[in-house]
Write a structure and sequence with these properties.
This protein is an alpha/beta fold. The chain has 20 helices and 20 strands. Strands 6-5-9-8-7 form a 5-stranded antiparallel beta sheet. A 5-stranded parallel beta sheet has the order 11-14-17-10-18, with helices on one face. A 4-stranded antiparallel beta sheet has the order 2-3-1-4, covered by helices on one side. It starts with a strand and ends in a 10-residue tail after the last helix.
């Protein structure tokens, strides 16, 4: 059985690694893998007899600068590999990593199982061309990649399903090419991100009994008759899009398109091309003849930007100019197009706090926040729960073809005492499950399944690969800092330099005064 060890040096001196390796050579011990850092060496070895291992440890003590050696379960690169694969496997997007020869080095479970109808082990090592037949991609993979632009939004088919494919060359900081990363987006899912143009929702469809919600509805009705931008805030699941649709339907633009866009559900380049459109030939993979953007299509209507806090700094600046000038320019184009739309935005984030941390533009916040509607969480308005329960039971009874007449007293008590972290959306899901499970005309307490466990990865994983990896990296750094005596100590535990860790802390706005050492 292989042995993994971690050797720690007192000083970072020249030839320390050579002296350690000379000891293994002396005892004819084979090395499978080695990873070297300042002060630390990780080594994966073939099996060593206990007697030989004791002699090797004694020889280590004679090496100048040696501090200690310990056996470990995993060496650093193995831990990083496990962590990265875990992140990639829970991302709802297909991801494939290719080597220089276009062979598959790694494929996440989503791509292996859902896209290629195989397994991770069954597809690893094979040429990507065995699974994807696309001329543009084939030509792209044959090119000499130095600083070439990625292949963006190529429409491909795998089986009977259509995908948008992005192919990005992997380059080191010294521009050394090592392979590619492929990202697949299900076109059907993306079509759901850009909502339908019809909008049947009105304020009468918002179920409530509480004075707090009734006052907010009256406020939103007043704002509806204006044509100014409205920022809708509130926790996830409170019904921000419901309010946006009702506002549109109460405005003078109700007979024009209402187009919702989820800013967090699209990669930055795709979101930009969907908003602004593009001219023919502006980038590889674009449609022949170009494409009109949502801002142009929505002329005269309303655009709803959900999760606007997730918009990248580049798009924030570009969108601010649109709001100021009421004109757009397509990607790759030179002609300005006059547009007319009403903007509604929503977020569950504190945008003022993001402004202070340079994550959101103050001038854009002023533009989108002429009026604001703050929707309270469900726990702040428990008197709305009975009305919502009655409504959702009716909806799901019809859906499951059942004759439900309500909920018993114990069941209602259970719902009233719960804190509802997922708000109305969670309540709707709980009641749908209860209706589906119930064998009687009334929902009982035993039919109501509530979640009391918060997923440790909640908030880390998004539809963006880049953002998910960043969230995961930030979480690891924060946890290491909290469990270390100093930033330098944390850097050593993470096997990175002190300077690199300081740069990452600056990148993620991690301040040492907020942590306990």
């Amino acid at each position: 059985m292989a042995k993994r060890i971690k050797i720690i040096a007192k000083v970072d001196r020249p030839h320390f690694t050579y002296d350690i390796l000379s000891i293994f050579h002396k005892y004819d011990v084979g090395i499978i893998w080695m990873e070297v850092y300042s002060y630390i060496i990780y080594i994966k070895l073939h099996h060593i007899d206990l007697e030989i291992w004791e002699k090797i440890k004694e020889d280590f003590k004679k090496v100048d600068g040696f501090q200690e050696v310990e056996e470990v379960d995993l060496i650093a690169f193995e831990e990083r590999d496990i962590e990265m694969k875990k992140v990639l496997d829970i991302i709802p997007q297909g991801v494939v990593v290719l080597d220089r020869r276009s062979s598959i080095k790694y494929v996440n479970k989503y791509a292996a199982e859902r896209i290629f109808k195989s397994t991770v082990s069954g597809i690893t090592g094979k040429l990507i061309g065995e699974y994807i037949k696309d001329e543009k991609m084939d030509i792209f993979l044959l090119e000499e990649h130095k600083t070439i632009k990625p292949l963006i939004n190529e429409n491909i088919e795998v089986g009977n399903q259509s995908y948008l494919l992005n192919v990005i060359p992997l380059l080191s900081e010294e521009n050394i090419f090592s392979g590619y990363i492929l990202a697949f987006d299900d076109i059907n899912k993306l079509n759901n991100v850009i909502g339908r143009y019809d909008n049947p929702i009105t304020f009468d469809d918002i179920i409530c009994e509480s004075t707090k919600m009734k006052n907010i509805i009256q406020q939103a009705k007043l704002f509806s008759v204006s044509d100014s931008p409205i920022l809708i805030t509130g926790e996830s699941g409170t019904g921000k899009e419901l309010f946006a649709r009702a506002i549109h339907n109460a405005s003078d633009r109700k007979n024009k398109p209402f187009i919702p866009i989820n800013c967090a559900a699209m990669p930055e380049q795709l979101l930009e091309s969907e908003l602004f459109g593009y001219e023919h030939g502006s980038f590889t993979g674009g449609k022949k003849g170009g494409k009109a953007g949502i801002l142009e299509i929505a002329n005269g209507g309303t655009i709803f930007l959900d999760e606007i806090g997730e918009m990248s700094p580049h798009l924030q600046a570009k969108f601010l100019r649109v709001l100021q000038e009421k004109k757009i320019r397509k990607i790759g184009g030179h002609r300005e197009i006059a547009i007319d739309f009403r903007l509604l935005s929503a977020t569950n984030k504190n945008l003022e706090h993001m402004v202070k941390n340079n994550k959101f533009r103050l001038d854009l916040l002023y533009r989108i926040n002429i009026f604001s509607v703050e929707i309270p969480s469900l726990k702040e308005r428990p008197e709305d729960i009975p009305a919502l329960v009655e409504y959702f039971i009716g909806v799901h009874s019809n859906r499951y073809d059942k004759s439900m007449v309500g909920i018993d007293q114990e069941g209602m008590k259970k719902l009233m005492e719960y804190k509802w972290p997922g708000n109305v959306r969670e309540l709707q899901n709980v009641l749908e499950r209860a209706v589906a499970l119930s064998n009687t005309s009334k929902i009982g307490e035993n039919n109501i399944i509530l979640s009391s466990i918060v997923d440790e990865n909640q908030g880390l994983i998004t539809n963006s690969l880049k953002e998910s990896v960043a969230n995961f990296e930030k979480k690891i750094i924060v946890e290491s800092l909290k469990n270390s005596e100093s930033i330098r100590d944390a850097a050593r535990k993470l096997n990175v330099t002190h300077t690199l860790l300081l740069n990452r802390m600056k990148k993620y706005d991690i301040r040492k005064e907020d942590l306990e050492f």
